[in-house]
Amino acid sequence: MTTFLGMPATAPRGVGHLRGDEPFPAAAHKALANDQLRRNLRHATTTIRGKSGRVIAELPDWQELRSAGSAIKADVMSRLPELLEQLEARVTERGGVVHWAADANEANAIVTDLVRQTGSERVIKVKSMATQEIALNEALEAAGIQPVETDLAELIVQLGNDKPSHILVPAIHRNRSEIREIFLAAMPGVDPALTDDPPVLAAAARKYLRETFLSTKVAISGANFGIAETGTLAVVESEGNGRMCLTLPETLITVMGIEKVVPAWQDLEVFLQLLPRASTGERMNPYTTMWTGVTPGDGPQNFHLVLLDNGRSAVLADEAGRSALHCIRCSACLNVCPVYERTGGHAYGSVYPGPIGAVLSPQLTGVEDNASLPFASSLCGACFDACPVKIDIPSILVHLRNRAPHGRIERAAMRAAAYTMDRPKLYARAQRAAKLARIAGRRGRGLPLGWNEARDLPEIPEQTFRDWWASR
Fold this sequence. Notes:
Strand content: 5-15%
Domain LUD: 84-294
Low-confidence stretches: none
InterPro entries: 4Fe4S_Fe-S-bd, 4Fe4S_Fe_S_CS, FTHF_cligase-like_sf, Helical_ferredxn, LUD_dom, LutB/LldF, LutB_C, NagB/RpiA_transferase-like
CATH class of the largest domain: Alpha Beta
Number of helices: 22
Shape: globular
Number of domains: 2
GO molecular function: 4 iron, 4 sulfur cluster binding; metal ion binding
Helix content: 40-55%
Pfam families: Fer4_8 (PF13183), LUD_dom (PF02589), LutB_C (PF11870)
Keywords: 4Fe-4S, Electron transport, Iron, Iron-sulfur, Metal-binding, Repeat, Transport
Oligomer: single chain
C-alpha cells in the first residue's frame, strides 16, 4: 500500500480537473462578458435560494443541526485513519474489495484495470465529483472504454464536450434551447423534430439512457457517505438514474474521497436533513440508495471501493484549513455567492467552483498552483451563513491568501505599512501628511499593489479620526 494518511502530498500535476488554464481574474473577465451566462446563472441561483430558504425555515432546530453536522465532521477528521480502516474491514467482510489510491493516477489505473478485467468496453456512471476531479472519463476513453454519464445535467455536459460549472447542477450555464441543440448534434437516435420543451428533452434523455442501462454490465459511482460502523455506502440523488446504475450492472466500482466517511448509521440522521434542504431545497432526497458489500442474487455481484486521497492528506495536515474537508457537496455556498453568480463555475478552473472551490482546490493542489482562487471573494460571509456544516470559508480564504505567493513590491509595501501601523506616533504623522493623497493618486491609482485593478481606494477624509477625537 502506498497511501499513508498524514503524508501531505498534493494532487499531481498533469492529471485531473483541479487546475485551470489561466488565473481566475482573466477567466472571470471573459465570463462577465457573456450576458446569456449571467442571465442563466441569476435565474438558477435565485430559484434555488428561494426554495432552500423556505424549507430551511420550516425547521426550528436548523442551527442545532448545523452544529451537529460540524461536530461529526470534526470528529471524523480527528480519527480519520481509524474510521477508514474500520470501513475497509466491514466492506471486506461483506464481500467487497477495497483499494487505496494515493492520487488521481493510481485511482484511474485501478478503475481502468478493474473494467478491463470484466471485458466490458462501456461503463455507466453515477454523478460523481471525485471521478471528475481525477478525470476518470478521459482515462477510460484513453483505454478504449466508453463512459456514459447518466445524470441528466452531466449527460448534457458530456454530449456538449463541455465542463461542469456547478457542484449540484453541472449544466446550470445552459438554457433549454442550448440543450436542444446539444441533443440534436450528439445524442444517438434523437428525433430530428425535438423541441426545447423540458418534458420533451427529459423524455429524449430517458429513452437513450434506459437502453444504455439495460445493455451495460459495469457501473462507476461516487459516494456521499461511507459508514464505518457497517461498511455501507450511500448515494443521494434526485432523478433515479443513480439507482439504476447501482442496482442493474454486474459490477459496481465506487470512487470515494477519504473524507466522506462517517462513524455510524445515526450520523446519517443529521446529514439527510441538512443536505437536501441546503442543496436542492427539498425536505428529503427523492432517491437515497444504500448498499453494503455484495448480496448474493441481488444487485451487483462484484463490488470494489476505491478510497481516494489525491491531496486530502495535505488538507488534513493544515489545522487552519482542514475544515474544508467537512464539505458535503451541497453547493449552498455557490448559490449565495455574488462572485459565483456573475462569473459562473468555469472561471474557477477547477471541478470545485465557487467559495468552497476557492478554499478546497488550492489546498488539494498546493496554493501556488491556484494562487488566484483565495482572492476570488469579497469576504462578505454569505457562504459561511449558508453552509450546512458551518465551514468558515472566509477565514480559510484569509489564511490561504497569507500563504499565496506575493510580488516583491507588494511584500515591501506591506512590510512598510506594518512597520508604520505598529508605531502610533509614526502612523499619526503619516495620516496627517499632505503628500499622502498625491502619492496614492486619484482613488488609489498610484498604488503599486494591483488593488486599483479591482477596486477604488476610498476618498481620504480631510480630518483623521485622531484629530476629530482630539478636537472634542
